[in-house]
């Protein structure tokens, strides 16, 4: 992607995590103050930029400083003297005194001491402005002493709709008190398709947070809308990740998805091409307070070099549906597409329309930092199967289950993989070696062996019997179709190492604390009547672990009070598929937790009704 069209600011790296400065300068609540700051700088005559912390370029990547009369850029670190900063060679701040500027812009938050340090260098009569001009209001902050504390920016976006007979319902647990947080408050901004804020409010959840588009639309007397819901947590503790389950339903449609990755990425992949009877719409939702430029967003067929770009601007926080067929009219499932996103959007959603029904899912982040790792082939000596990606094979009398490998790193030229099917009892029921699959030719695997229990799961694993290379970032899209009704759902995820005490590069992954992750805490939202909640729990094992799980299913009401508790055992390499109404007959609740201190489980959940409509997505833990 051309450099001028990419948002040139660090958002997230696997080495450092998320960049709180990025969230601070793109936060929707601060956008008016940022524009006012720019206006003051533009009116302020010759401007000197003082960049003691290295934030000036990042700020300018979001907020265009081209309208300033820039008289010089100054730094504190002598090793930065002479580097190009905002198009000028950086000078030592000690030269500021003779600059003759009318305004000094200090590119930092919590800048009081930094301003004091250079007070003797500021030209007489010059104004001093800092990024503190665009701080969030104090009541939005968790840590008021350190503005760039990541906990001040525990935020996320959700695709949110109440239009055309379709509704959305967001559900999550108030999990921050478990990390020591107090008085959790959720501040909400609702954007319509144009990017305008149509509602702002705060929630104070006890045990569970439920945001229903029908209730919100009625509360604020809103017209039909499709847009974004922005969530900001005050009182967060432990981590700044905002997770949720999101259901979309209405008429013949029912689908669910989970939290967006709140950090924009350069690329996304796993966008499916339509079948002949489908329309695939990519929802492009701008997650920034400035417009996405023309040509900054593009699509290409997986493994092909031709990129077709969007030839229009996307306004701040606006939502725009893109028909995949308008870009590649000949593309057909199981072909898939990549999204060149340029760090402008958080993980986008796509919507598949078929026979008057819609279903929603999401592409995943396509990594740019990975290279082939020869040691992965040697991991079998210590980790058995090593990296594996587990997914349900739903009851075969009712559903058809299929998987499509999805290259999810820019450097992946091939995938040396195999699929292994396991019965619910944990016994291997079949294996298919796919070989060294070229990036552009990932095969659809839609035939599973008959499983004695009637259901089970499949694991996508590396297979080096014919050689090949891998990087550990193994992904696939899983699609399910109800035999009688034709309703469909799909989800996607990536591989991990499961249930071994040995560790390698952060695996087996742990939600809290150091790896290995050898316990389970999964959130299971409970659907509204007439929908029942379905759940498929898998006990994947890379080599060998406990013979069976010791899994507790705990039902809670909306205030987080326990209502019921049941224990189930899942065989090693086995699974269990159930309806919540069967586990807790006659009981009602707002959500359930899946807890196991003996092993790490992987789970999928969804809703199902009596008409054959259903949804499915993977669960999240915290």
Fold and architecture overview:
It is a single chain. The protein has 622 residues and is mainly β. The chain folds into 3 domains: 28-134, 3-Layer(aba) Sandwich (Rossmann fold); 140-362, no CATH class; 374-621, Sandwich (Hypothetical Protein Tm1070, Chain: A), CATH 2.60.290.11. The protein has 8 helices and 43 strands. Strands 10, 11, 12, 13, 14, 15, 16 and 17 form an 8-stranded antiparallel sheet that branches. Strands 7-4-3-8-9 form a 5-stranded parallel sheet, covered by helices on one side. Strands 21-20-23-18-26 form a 5-stranded antiparallel sheet, with no helix packed on it. Strand 1 and strand 2 form a beta hairpin.
Beta-strand residue fraction? 35-45%
Q: Structural class from helices and strands?
A: mainly beta
The CATH homologous superfamily of the largest domain is termed TM1070-like
What is the oligomer described by this structure? Answer: single chain
What is the CATH-assigned architecture of the largest domain?
Sandwich
Low-pLDDT parts are none
Shape: globular
Largest sheet: 8 strands, antiparallel
Radius of gyration: 26 Å
Number of domains: 3
Terminus-to-terminus distance: 35 Å
User: How many distinct beta strands?
Assistant: 43
Q: Number of helical runs?
A: 8
Helicity, in percent? under 10%
Q: Give average pLDDT, whole number.
A: 95
CATH class of the largest domain: Mainly Beta
């Amino acid at each position: 992607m051309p450099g001028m069209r990419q948002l040139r600011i660090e958002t997230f790296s696997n080495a450092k995590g998320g960049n709180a400065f990025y969230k601070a300068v793109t936060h929707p609540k601060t956008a008016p103050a940022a524009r006012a700051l720019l206006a003051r700088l533009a009116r302020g005559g010759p401007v000197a930029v003082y960049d003691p912390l290295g934030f000036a370029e990042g700020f300018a990547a979001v907020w265009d400083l081209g309208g300033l009369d820039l008289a010089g850029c100054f730094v504190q670190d002598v090793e930065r003297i002479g580097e190009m900063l905002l198009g000028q060679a950086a000078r030592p701040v000690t030269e500021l005194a003779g600059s003759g500027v009318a305004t000094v812009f200090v590119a930092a938050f919590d800048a009081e001491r930094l301003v004091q340090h250079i007070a003797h260098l500021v030209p007489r009569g010059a104004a001093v402005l800092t990024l503190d001009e665009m701080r969030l209001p104090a009541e939005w902050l968790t840590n008021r002493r350190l503005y760039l504390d990541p906990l001040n920016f525990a935020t996320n976006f959700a695709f949110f709709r109440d239009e055309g007979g379709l509704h959305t319902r967001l559900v999550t647990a108030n999990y921050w008190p478990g990390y020591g947080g107090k008085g959790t408050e959720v501040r909400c901004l609702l954007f319509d398709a144009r990017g305008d804020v149509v509602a702002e409010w705060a929630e104070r959840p006890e045990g569970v947070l439920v945001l229903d588009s029908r209730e919100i639309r009625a509360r604020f007397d809103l017209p039909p809308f499709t847009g974004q819901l922005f969530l900001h947590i005050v009182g967060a503790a432990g981590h700044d990740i905002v997770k949720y389950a999101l259901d979309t339903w209405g008429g013949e449609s029912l689908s669910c998805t989970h939290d967006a990755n709140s950090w924009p990425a350069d690329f996304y992949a796993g966008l499916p091409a339509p079948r002949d009877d489908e329309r695939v719409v990519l929802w492009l939702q701008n997650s920034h307070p400035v417009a996405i430029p023309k040509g900054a967003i593009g699509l290409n067929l997986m493994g092909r070099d031709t990129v077709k770009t969007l030839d229009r601007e996307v306004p701040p926080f606006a939502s725009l549906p893109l028909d995949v067929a308008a870009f590649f009219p000949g593309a057909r499932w199981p072909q898939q597409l990549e999204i060149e996103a340029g760090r402008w959007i958080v993980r986008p959603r796509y919507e598949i329309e078929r026979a008057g029904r819609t279903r929603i899912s999401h592409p995943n982040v396509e990594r740019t930092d990975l290279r082939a790792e020869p040691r992965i082939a040697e991991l079998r000596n210590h980790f058995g199967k090593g990296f594996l990606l587990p997914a349900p094979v739903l009851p075969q009398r009712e559903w058809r289950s299929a998987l499509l490998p999805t290259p999810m790193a820019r450097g992946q030229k091939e995938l040396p993989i195999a699929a292994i099917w396991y019965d619910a009892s944990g016994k291997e029921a079949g294996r298919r070696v796919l070989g060294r699959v070229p990036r552009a030719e990932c095969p659809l695997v839609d035939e599973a062996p008959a499983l004695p229990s009637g259901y089970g799961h499949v694991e996508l694993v590396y297979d080096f019997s014919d050689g090949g290379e891998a990087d550990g970032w193994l992904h696939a899209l899983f699609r399910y179709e109800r035999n009688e009704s034709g309703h469909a759902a799909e989800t996607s995820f990536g591989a991990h190492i499961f249930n071994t005490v040995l560790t390698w590069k952060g695996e087996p992954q742990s939600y809290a604390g150091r790896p290995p992750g050898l316990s389970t805490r999964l959130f299971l939202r409970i659907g509204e009547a007439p929908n029942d909640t379905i759940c498929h729990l898998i006990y994947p094992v890379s080599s060998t672990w406990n013979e069976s799980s010791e899994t507790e299913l705990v039902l809670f009401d909306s205030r987080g009070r326990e209502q019921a508790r049941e224990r189930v055992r899942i065989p090693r390499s086995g699974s269990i598929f159930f309806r919540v109404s069967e586990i807790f007959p006659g009981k009602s609740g707002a959500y359930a937790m899946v807890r196991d201190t003996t092993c790490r489980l992987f789970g999928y959940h969804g809703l199902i009704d009596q008409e054959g409509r259903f949804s499915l997505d993977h669960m999240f833990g915290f």
